[in-house]
Amino acid sequence: MKINKIVILVIVFSIAFAFIESSVVVYIRELYYPEGFDFPLKPMAFHIIVTEIFRELSTIIILISIGVLTGKSNIEKFAYFILSFAIWDIFYYVFLKILIDWPESLLTWDILFFIPLTWVGPVIAPVINSITMIILASCIIFYVQKSGKIKFDFLLWSLLVIGSLITIYGYTEEYTFFMLQEFNLIELFGFGDVQALIKYAINFIPEYFNWYIFSFGELLFFTAIFIIIKRNPCHQGSKTLSFTK
What we know:
Elements: E1 2-4, H1 5-32, H2 46-70, H3 74-100, E2 109-113, E3 119-122, H4 124-147, H5 154-179, H6 185-188, H7 194-201, H8 211-231, E4 242-244
Parallel strand pairs: 1-4
Antiparallel strand pairs: 2-3
């Protein structure tokens, strides 16, 4: 069994980056939620909210950059990106648990992203997504390392893209319907009175997560993983433990 040194470096980077991300959240919660994070959200200054949005955007850019810098082919770049993202996301919660004993459980509600709309869900949901991404990335990296290529076509990309869109819908569904009670879609994406939008949004309290939608997205992801394994069978043979670039 070969151990890919790039994989190890990506994992180490992602864990370290997760601690940086967790540290920022610790500071924010100490300032705004000294008694513990909960819904509804506390009011924040507009420039703080803008800073948070661009911090999230920068985080995604950094994780994408890791994939671009470490992968040779496009599919490898994608694999290292989702591997880095998944490790970062899991250890983000691990460090928050260590530093401030949060979340209380895997069913604790959290705000995941603000782009393009607010994503909300129980902590276990992004953890499940991250484990799925690790499995997918591992399959891609294994087969590329094994044969130098992998069969990845329109069907696989369609399953992953549609699965991702369905999953994002699951995270944003309840918040979106809450906001649409007061604003239209154009206003919801920031083309209106932003201050009024923010003032109304902080009243949102999540109550229902659509596990059916979430599960369907996961089903599409694992269908893609199954197809990859089916198309790229692992031939039996002797395996040696070595480090490769």
